[in-house]
Amino acid sequence: MNIIATKPITMEEMFEKVKLQFPQYKVELKKNPLMRFQYIQVSKSSTVGCWIRLKESKITLVGAIPSTFIRAMFGGLILIAFISGKLKRLTAELGGYLKTQYE
User: How much is the pLDDT for 64?
Assistant: First the structure.
């Protein structure tokens, strides 16, 4: 899911808002050292999560498996086939909130 932000936004500000809005989920601000970008990882469980990335004024949400161990053990593509509905629901929930805040 892609959202074009019409309001000024920073990654740290978005991180704080998501963390306050969704206290039932584990929310982390992470960095990818190879590609040199930050992203927010929202984990509903070890197999259901979402990555939020900000590039200029474009917010991108991608359903993901938060646990590196589980991705390696089961294979990301195989597991995503079984949990795609849960990933889509979490992405829609987060996307709906971010749309109300930044669109």
Answer: 85
